[in-house]
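Field reference: sequence -> structure
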Amino acid sequence: MEINDLTYKIIGSAYKVHSALGPGLLESAYQSCLEYELKKLGFLVESQKALPIIYEEVHLNAGYRIDLLVENSVVLELKSVEAINEVHIAQILTYLKLSKVKVGLLINFNVKDLKQGIKRFVL
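Structure field:
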């Protein structure tokens, strides 16, 4: 599947979850529901995927986890915060770099209009 089609379907699923639940819940609630929706569409979804740091050819398990990895092609970093800030952006960019995945979506569900809560990143 083309990456733009995949991200389109992911965003559509995020809208469906947001419409059903609204803002104000914990991140874990949105994550579980979005994972369910994406699996229902037949996508390979990995939740809380461990992301080791490789330093001088040594794999270090530093506790980093990707919220959702879809089809081994899109990193989803989910938030339920008042506003996205620079730390959140740095986090997803780091996850993309460490995972060697080229496309990521940062989705903040704690917004009235989900359009305002979605940011796409491409390395």
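Note: Residues 3-122 form one domain.
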